[in-house]
Design goal:
This protein is an alpha+beta fold. It folds into 2 domains: about 260 residues, Ferritin, core subunit, four-helix bundle (Ferritin, Up-down Bundle); about 120 residues, Immunoglobulin-like. The strands form 3 sheets. It has a 5-stranded mixed beta sheet, with no helix packed on it. A 3-stranded antiparallel beta sheet has the order 1-3-6, with no helix packed on it. Strands 8-9 form a two-stranded antiparallel sheet. Helix 5 packs antiparallel against helix 10 and helix 10 runs antiparallel to helix 12. The longest helix is centred in the N-terminal third of the chain and has 26 residues.
Amino acid sequence: MTDEQPTTEPAAERSHELLKRVNEQVGSEYDLLSTTGKVGAGAAALGVAGTGTAAAGHADADYSDSEYEDTNQFGYGALTDVQIVKFALLLERLEATFYTEAVGGRLGEVDVESSAIAQQLANPSLRYATFQRLKQVRDHEQTHVEALEGVLEAVGSDPDFGSDVEFEFPYETVGEFYDLAQVFEDTGVAAYTTAAPAIDTEKYLASAVRIHAVEGRHASYLRTLNNPLPAGSAALNPFPRAFQLKLSVSDVVGRIEPFVVGADAEDIVGLLSMDESAVPDTASATFEDQSTDGSSVTVASAALPDGGFVAMHDSSLLDGNVAGSVIGVSEKYDAGTVMKVEVPLYSGVPGSDFDQSALQEDQTLIAMPHKDTNDNGTYDFITSGGEADGAYVQDGSAVVDDAEISVN
């Protein structure tokens, strides 16, 4: 049972239900510590067998230096130090986007300072500083993003990790905004707290601790605003306990999943665990049902052992119309696994002319990875009559995945 409670600030039912759901995902620290067999879903997806098993991917290396990592109770022991930095960066990108959108236009200064939350502050200098504090938090989160990008760049990892992830925040009022802000700050503090013991590299840990302290201040400030303490109130204290609650990998992923556009928990963990340097042995495509305005679709992931493209076919492919069914193609990718591949429809396909500019009705589409056989960076399958840039094949058949597309 959690001792977290929804805020007392009036807000729309949607925001309260969301806040209630994410708070219910977290047990007390004593509950977590007493569950000795618990392994986060995120860790399981990364290949961890269970408590007492060395983290997958490190069994052949002298990686773990503590029982904490080996028992892997919260899932962070299954991550390399760089993956933990990436996880932190994804959280910071979410927070930076959230606050930047808010003070950049979704919330006005007057709206914030005249809200019920601000009005509870009797001191005018505190009341009229609430919007400025949000701008300061925004600046902090943007700086955290830049700092973690610098850490990744310094070790030769991609500093743009997660930069193409889209977020969406379902709030309409100032009260709903503060509800979500409290969720994000509490989540960030708990994630840093729980991940820190699994970090081996001292400079990573030093960066994490410095960010963690500031996130804790953010969380306390927001809890003060969200949870006034009049006599007899059951509202939360900004610092209700002597020890910070811990969140497993799966807890954190579960909290941020509702705000990531077009991705579920498995996608988030897959993005986190993807080895940038590894070239897949076989081609694959993951194409999920989705809604679109008809101008493009998104393929969740594509494994391209030799690099190449992701072509989009309509269902006439099933009737043998191989070339004529191509209605879109992605940009050229190097060998590896790519996530969130955007494929424009009815444009940019060399050798094809279309009498429409967008998908006009709901239908099944088929994603097909193609090679760049002539290595010129251009999709030449149509112009070559099928001689160049053919599809990846496995067991005698083209590698494909289909999805139901709804046009909105």
